[in-house]
Amino acid sequence: MGDLSDAVQWWDASQLRFLVLASLGIQYLLTVLAVGRKFSVPSWFRLVIWLLYLGSDALAIYTLATLFNRQKKPSSSNDSRDLEVLWAPFMLLHLGGQVFITAYDIEDNELWKRHVVTALSQASFRPIFSNYIAVALYVFCKSWSPSADIKLLATAILIFIPGILKCFTKPWGLKYASFLSLADSLDLAERTTAANREEELQNYVQEARTFVLANKKESSDSVKLYAPQLLFVDFSYTYSRRLTNLKAFHSFNHQEADSSLRHGLSDIFDLLYTRKNVFDFEEAEMRGRECGSIFTWFLSFLLPIVAVVLFHISHKKSYRRDDVAVTIVLLYSTIVLEFFSVSVMGAFKSQWPGTIAQRSILGQFSRNKRHTNLMSFATRLRCKDLLDQHWSMESYDSSGIITKLVRRHVEDGWKNFITDAKSYREFNDIRGQWTLQREGCHERLNWSLEKPFDESILLWHIATDLCYYHNSEFLRYTLDISHYMMHLLIANPEMLMPGSRRSLFARAHNELEGILKGEEDTLMKEAEVVEKVIDKVKSARDASTKETFIYDAWLLAEVLMSLDSEQMWRLIEGVWLEMMCFSAGRCRGFLHAKALGYGGEYLSHVWLALAHSGMETFTDRLQRTQKPHLPWAPEARKIAIVSPRKPPPPTFAVLLSSRRRRRSAVYIQAPATREAENTNPALVLMAWGVPTRLPSSRVQTLYELCKRTFPSPSSAAPPSPPPASAVRAISSIMDTISPVDVGLRDDNLEDGGGHGFFESSFMKGSARAARWAQPITYLHIYECDAFSIGIFCLPTSAVIPLHDHPGMTVLSKILYGSMHVKSYDWIEPTVLPSNQPVRLAKLHTDNVLTAPCPTTVLYPQSGGNLHSFTSVASCAVLDVLAPPYSENDGRVCTYFHDYPFSSFSAERTKMVDRPDDYAWIEAINSPVNIYMRPGMYTGPTVQDRLS
Fold first, then answer.
1. Residue 928's CB: how many other CB atoms inside 10 A?
2. Is the pLDDT of residue 452 over 80?
3. Which position among 171, 300, 458, 663 has the lowest Cβ density within 10 Å, counted as fewest Cβ atoms?
């Protein structure tokens, strides 16, 4: 009992010294270790920092409480109460925290009001100091001896001043780093001046695409890369700022781009979690925060120096040596700590780490089998799920390579995909479809991307592992992306995509255990697991195995393995890049900022790279302006009744058969006033007294004109072109046909994805398919031996290669959109170079046609009988072919390739004065990359009422 009593007495005498020195030690540890938050450190290291961050305030407050309680005890003759009073303001300095770690989590910034309440309380409606400041002042006033040296009193006051200031500086810093405060201080509140935001986006896309295509490299002095702080508070850049960032970021090489991303993330971390940010921003409130922090640091550094001098010249001999030593340590350590903090803060310019976290289902399964006892113990403690969640694989430092691939992917998008506002949005919405389309695997693999995004991630992750362990030739960084996306699904599903289900990983893991039941004890390495899984799923007969993620992933992997190795990994890489960019663009800036507090996610690198490259952010998607889908009701159209007594102006001819015979025709002129554009041509004819039935639609009128104009072809002689007046009549009718007249909704053509929206139950009941996944769609309206009527719907950048129309007359009308048309006519007599399978043709058209535009006509020997179409924007073309293609009659569509005139030479070509107007044409096999399908025509039906 004597030993215990002595120990208790020793603790009572030494407790305060121990607490004061422990609080000082924690401050040093926080200052040193907090710098490591910017490095790739293990989880236990961050746990230590978190415990120190929480314990620093708790220990300082407990020390003040101990000081308060000691005042109730009687003092002894050798008591050092006056020195203990000197320790109280040091605890206030410790409560003010260190500049390297103002906040640990972003939620700490949002709780700044709690710290203010701790610093201020309401008593009789008058603000007084908070509890711990009041305790410190109470201890100081009650414990100070009137007989104590005045120099010690001055020393205490000099420490109290910065201590109280730092207690208020911390909540002040938290307040300015909170979400709303940053939003208020960083938002310039620029008023949108554009009356049409869609037009503004269109202009931005055109300027950005022109810049990227020109491959310009701006100098560092002429462009400025805006700091990304607006993005982290979920604000959008204006299009002008977005374009400026794109020009600057595009001008960087890959190393400079990666460095700018890391510095940007590092600066945002400083803004949110430290006080280093006060030197980096120019906003007025930030400058005020900077001045306040500099002033507080100046006092915290200078006043303790004066206090040290006063303490050394004071009378200390009457106090215990241990207490004097503790006081000296506190004074000198405070000076060193403040100097060290600011020195390191000013000199330390770190980049954000580039490591990428990894997680794998097959890897975790093998690891669990290698640590069976540990897993069993964790299961009994009901913490296996927690262990699985935090026990990740080794991280890899491959961010530089992957960031380079992301930039290349976006650059390819600007050059080969994005042409207008609609395709810009579609590029931001792809998640693997473009790669499948380019690799020719869309039909076989698109099912894996039509699932919910988290399920697609899971399937492609397992399939990638199966391909990796089954094929030794692989790209390491492709596997890194796969494992990182799985890490997001497990550790940060809210960043992967809102609504992502972490439980999918556990379900797939359980399915894997069920499939390999009975084999578990022999499995150690991932390669062995893969071989066993493949054997099991190949021989699966029961529905329980086939209805699993593992089986679906094998079906996906089986198709991938059927490709050659190079194409397989190229396809896998492209899909993962698109899915990673898709995920990054759908994560809030707030979540990226939150992730920085515990080490950050590589997804933030990708997100910043996309934003600096001119892509959409999550906020931009929410701000999209699109027309609402309202019930369609066509406006009442005016019908012009033209008097038959006045001769009509000769502008377009309407074909009419007076005896209802196909080969006899009478041409009557009809008016072409502006009112007549909305006039049913048959009503005009009736106004002229011509007996005819009332067609129910313009399509019906077109059909009847074609029926009377084009006779059935004779096998004995090639069809002759119709009279020019008849062609003008049909062209005039086609000029009046709008998308609405053929069943295309004119209020949603911009969303057609290349095939328009058709009023059909099929399209109404399904989601709009993306343009890159759509073929060229042909809508059949009518066909007979004499002519055919149909509509070709082309997605943006779709191409119908150069082809001919043997013995045919073709009328084409662009209903909406724009396309580039290039056409040729054969040079007669035929010009052939020696020993070359080419023939000379003359250029007829090389222009971009945009709706509305007149109907174009080509003839068997003129008008550009050989032509090619390239859609500049999604478009639809109404075609009349007379007669249509027919293999039996020798009218076969032949595809060609054109070569510049200078490529070949012939005797008769030496006199050509304008070589650019000629080209050599070579017949080729049917292109394999034409993706065309029939669609469902839902416009007015054609009624064959003529005999």
1. 7
2. yes
3. 663
Phi, psi at 605, each rounded to 5°: -60, -50
Which of 65, 38, 63, 33 lies closest to 50, judged by CA? 33
Q: Verify cis geometry, omega within 30 degrees of 0, for the bond prior to 852.
A: yes
Number of neighbouring beta carbons within 10 Å of residue 853: 13
Tokens, residue 848: 């971009």
Model confidence pLDDT, tens digit, residues 150-196: 888 888 888 888 888 887 778 877 887 887 777 777 655 566 666 77
Q: What is the pLDDT of residues 661-683, one digit of tens each?
A: 333 333 333 333 333 344 444 44
Residue 606: closest CA among 271, 250, 261, 357: 261
> Above 50 in pLDDT, residue 752?
no
DSSP letter at 940 equals P
Q: Are 458 and 490 in contact (CB under 8 A)?
A: no
Whether residue 452 has a cis bond before it, omega within 30° of 0: no
Burial per residue of 52-83, b for 16 or more beta-carbon CB atoms within 10 angstroms, e otherwise: bbebbbebbbebbebbbebeeeeeeeebbbbb
**What pLDDT was estimated at residue 218?**
66
Per the document, the length of the chain is 947
Give the predicted TM-score (pTM) of the model. 0.64
According to DSSP, the residues that pair with 900 across neighbouring strands are: 919
Label the pairing between strands 776-783 and 932-934: parallel
In angstroms, the CA 731 to CA 725 distance is 10
Lowest mean pLDDT among 214-223, 519-528, 747-756: 747-756
**Mean pLDDT of the region 635-658:** 33
User: Do strands 866-882 and 809-826 pair parallel, antiparallel, or not at all (unpaired)?
Assistant: antiparallel
Residue 209 has pLDDT above 70, yes or no: yes
Three-state DSSP string of 586-642: CCCHHHHHHHHCCCCCHHHHHHHHHHHCCCCCHHHHHCCCCCCCCCCCCCCCCCCCC
SS3 287: helix
Phi, psi of 474 (to 5 degrees): -155, 170
pLDDT in tens, 469-493: 876 555 678 889 999 999 999 989 9
Q: Each residue of 343-380: b (16+ CB within 10 Å) or e?
A: eebeeeeebbbbbbbbbbbbbbbbbbbeeeeebeebee
| pLDDT level of residue 694 (50, 70, 90 thresholds) | very low
DSSP reduced 3-state for 182: helix
- Cα(639)–Cα(686) distance, integer angstroms: 12
Say which range, 6-15, 531-540, 670-679, has the weakest mean pLDDT. Answer: 670-679
Using alpha carbons only, how large is the chain's radius of gyration in Å? 39
Collapsing DSSP states into helix, strand and coil, what is residue 893? coil
Q: In sequence order, what are the residues at sequence separation of 6 or more whose Cβ sits closer than 8 angstroms to the Cβ of residue 1?
A: none
- Cα-Cα-Cα-Cα dihedral sign, residues 687, 689, 693, 698: negative
Cross-strand partners of 667: 655
pLDDT for residue 614 = 92
Helix, strand or coil for residue 555?
helix
Q: Please list, in sequence order, all residues whose beta carbon lies within 8 angstroms of the beta carbon of residue 579, skipping any fewer than 6 positions away.
A: 431, 432, 453, 456, 457, 460, 485
Instruction: Classify the C-alpha dihedral 184-104-294-122 as positive or negative.
Output: positive
The secondary element (H helix, E strand) that includes residue 708 is helix 698-709
- CB contact set of 733 (below 8 Å; sequence gap of 6+): 652, 654, 681, 698, 701, 702, 705
User: What stretch of H or E contains 567?
Assistant: helix 565-584
Residue 163's nearest CA partner among 257, 48, 27 is: 27
pLDDT at 314: 80
82-95 average pLDDT score: 81
Q: Name residue 578's amino acid.
A: E
Residues 829, 808: Cα–Cα separation, whole Å: 20
Distance of CA 100 to the CA centre of its chain: 32
